[in-house]
Design a protein that fits this description.
five-stranded antiparallel β-sheet, 248 residues, Arc Repressor Mutant, subunit A, globular, alpha+beta, Jelly Rolls, 2 domains
Length: 248
């Protein structure tokens, strides 16, 4: 069971009220650890509950802590040279984030925002080298996470360069459904965190008007269903064909 102190004014980090080790045993960074090792790691952790829309950390700020997302979804933003914020990826529960020490960075390269209400554990960045040296499985998973996210970023760049906007929007919906989706009756997948049409436009290098037009057309065709800040992919197979049409 999750048990947290309330976050007071200013949103200070709170020490955990004795989380059970079993909460982390199934998560990839901790699978190779014994319960005693997980206990030692938990005893060094602080916790915080972040309301939807709040900033966990901002790009360019000192990377003083690294994080594990226990619940919810993190939206990562980057700012272009022109000053425009774009959504570069979403991080689901169970993953590390804010791991600037893993790439030798002293500041955060992106801004992490709570896409829904989230609960995260965090540790001081000075403990990173000790964790990775003492727990090889933790360090290996961190490297895999970095590789996976670099792959996602490269794929996003390739999408912007080679795909039509309709394909990019469909691919973004499918990716969010895969990362944080729950099955609905009828075989659909609802994106489990709030997402606006502007969010989708920011992810795909599109405009709010274009995204709204596409979603309205797909809703009429039975591919998606939407209500305020929530979207479900009602026909994943057909939407996948839009994202990656078969060769002519």
């Amino acid at each position: 069971m999750l048990c947290f102190d309330k976050v007071g004014a200013g949103g200070a980090l709170k020490v955990l009220k004795r989380l059970d080790e079993s909460l982390l045993t199934g998560l990839a960074p901790f699978r190779q650890m014994s319960r005693a090792e997980i206990r030692a790691v938990l005893d060094l952790a602080a916790s915080r509950r972040y309301p939807e829309g709040s900033t966990v950390f901002a790009a360019g700020f000192p990377a003083e802590r690294f994080y594990l997302l226990l619940d919810g979804t993190i939206r990562v933003l980057r700012t272009t040279p022109e000053g425009e914020q774009i959504v570069v990826l979403h991080i689901p529960a169970g993953q590390l984030f804010g791991i600037a020490p893993a790439i030798g960075a002293t500041t955060y390269p992106g801004t992490a925002v709570a896409a829904s209400e989230v609960i995260a554990l965090s540790w001081p960045s000075r403990l990173w080298s000790d964790f990775t040296a003492r727990y090889p499985g933790f360090g290996l998973q961190a490297m895999r996470t970095i590789g996976q996210r670099l792959g996602e970023l490269h794929a996003r760049i390739a999408d912007l360069a080679t795909r039509q906007v309709e394909q990019r929007v469909a691919a973004a919906l499918m990716q969010m459904a895969a990362q944080g989706g729950r099955r609905t009756t009828g075989g659909g997948i609802e994106i489990a965190f709030p997402v606006t049409r502007q969010n989708i436009a920011d992810m795909t290098g599109s405009t709010l008007f274009t995204v709204s037009r596409l979603l309205s057309a797909w809703e009429q065709a039975g591919l998606v269903a939407s209500r305020r800040r929530h979207i479900a992919v009602t026909d994943p197979h057909r939407l996948m064909l839009v994202a990656s049409p078969p060769p002519a």
